[in-house]
Amino acid sequence: MNREQISKLAHTHHPIKSPVNDDTVSRLLAQALPRGDERVLDLGCGSAEWLLRALAAHPDVRAEGVDISESDLAEARRRADHLGVGDRLDLHLRKAEDFTSPHPFDLILCVGSTHVFGGLLPTLEAVRRFLAPGGRVMIGDGIWEGTPTPEAVEMLGDFDDLPTTVDRIVTNGWTPVQGHTSTRQELDDYEWSNWGTLADWALNNPTHPDSPQILDWSTTRRTEWLHTYRNAWSFTTLILRRTSD
Prior knowledge:
- The protein is of the alpha/beta class.
- It is built from 9 helices and 7 strands.
- It starts with a helix and ends with a strand.
- The relative contact order is 0.16.
């Protein structure tokens, strides 16, 4: 299996590919879609789970998703049609940084995909051109909640703590209007789900040629989480508006 296939398998029981639970997703979407008839864009949408939930909860919302994974977009299309929201969802197979649109969006999502643009602030700069006046951006990224070891920084990246992250965002012309920092339960549930799902699959398919690879992958990732970054890394999801349109 390649990395994309492994990731898809790992997220079987946690289709939101970030450490937030279903209640958090619903609450954040409700706060980000105050009118209920917004046009929404997800850059790096994967299988478009955020968009599908927004469309299912708000029958007047229209959405577009952008991703480079043909299989993820095909899955999103199948699920959208099954949910009866396919006529309100457009999907684009291309790099997020190459996406263009003739119209602006009331809500732009980039949750867990800021690496596509090179980090948090470059992502916010990139989405400015798509945002309608008065629109919102929902962005999700890692933060440090404890002092990371050099190994954790090398493994996950050079994040800031929450106060520094918010200060940098505000300095760059954005105002947070809502936010969520993942709870310990959400963080642990996400990691246990991912690596446990992989291990379970490998143990259930011992004769499959990929079974040893998948079991080794799950063991390595679980060990890295428990020993390297569990007590230092967290995740924040922020809803932002431009301070001055």
